[in-house]
Amino acid sequence: MKRILKILGVVAFALVMLLPFAFLGYWALGEGWRFPRLWPDRWHTSAIESFFSGKFLESLLLSVVISISVAVFATALGYITAHYVGYHRQRKWLLRIAYLPFVASPVILATCLLFLWIKLRLVGTLFGVVLAQWMFAFSFAIVFFVPFWSPTIRATEELVYTLGGTARQALQKVLLPMSVASLRICFFQTFLMSWVQYGITLMVGGGKVQTLPVLVYFYVNEANVTFAAMASLLLTLPPLLLLAFNKKYLWNENG
Amino acid sequence: MDKQTFLLVENLSKSFGNEQVLKKISFTLEKNALMAILGRSGSGKTTLLKCLAGLDSPDFGEVLLSQQSIRKLPPQSRGVVYLFQEPLLFPHLNVYENLAFGLRLRKTTDSVIKNEVEEMLTQLGLTDHAKKAPHQLSGGQRQRVSFGRAVMTKPRLLLLDEPFASLDVDLKAQMQELFLELARNYDITAIWVTHDLKEALMMGTRFGFMQQGSLRLYESASDFVSDSQTGVQNEIAFWKGVLAQEK
Questions:
Q1: Are A114 and A234 in a shared domain?
Q2: ipTM value of the model?
């Protein structure tokens, strides 16, 4: 009995976790469903065909480009900036400043900065969207990396110098290899932050930069449930792939 | 400066804000000598070593090594290796590669590296551990690799900042012996700072006592022992008291 309850527990857990995805698949491929029927009138693949015929693919590629750009720049610059912050005498204060973008809601901050973006003629441009999203991802990356630059890492870095290494050699041969796991996790997190970003993209993109989340809401507003479900499913795909590639680091499988 | 002087430190001073951490430190050291500097926490020992290694800049003073000023040189150009309290092995490199690290930085050929690392592994008694990762080693083994890695770069001056503070008594004694052997084999000139009286007396050929940023030097071990400030007399009195009670 205990074993059956355990199995039921696992099945229930898996169902709860997978239900949203199953439901999206159901909406994407089913047509003519009416409550309280269990199944739709028919199954179709028109959403998949549409995906390959244009708009979805365009949005998917755009989202990938934006998210990778944000993640690469936020991770790289966050790593370097956190090095400066981590070793600084005023580390605590600088870290508090880095937290500020989290204190304010991204959408509210973006609204406040919209005037600046308009003046800089960045509204409605890909670069404008990347820059706006990067601000928050960069802030996250600094907060994420500051603990890495601990007194032990500093001592290790200094040891490389006294052993005859330059700053470049210290970075290439010791610091980067020691921070591979952190770099991967930060890249993954900042990618996700950008990937699901809706408010800032809509505001700064002015509707011209149609990433997948924007497309989902567009279809929702249009009451196009099938396409909205298809776009939502695609939205989950790259993070799942990243999750699979980084499982070793994210779940610390090495113990 | 006489010809025998290998290291000359003159009026070295350093302040952090209003606090003067080093107060006109001056001393000389001959080649292959090992200066043991005793001092309590916060006496300025670590700052002194960091200034000599180029990891901190002194406010005033001069440092000459082989009669050349090194004060303005970056740490990588001084030939001065600073060993921290912790062994700080590179976790992504195995024992062999940790030992070879300094030589690889100097672009030494693979065959020379192989010979030198194998010789060092033998001296350290770590031949069977060459392929192991640092986390697979004991505390003493890690410390041995750390020494070996530093010595292999043939430093002009080796600075040791309480390297055995975290080891137990037996291991500490073994490591002290090993270090003295390495120092003899590789002609090491070193400054060793510690808060351990016995260690200072065992390791040093020259002695100093650091207190509130000032360094007092001693001509001999007996001078060091006689000075009431070093704490040796207190230690002797303590053990005499214990023995007297026994009787």
A1: yes
A2: 0.89
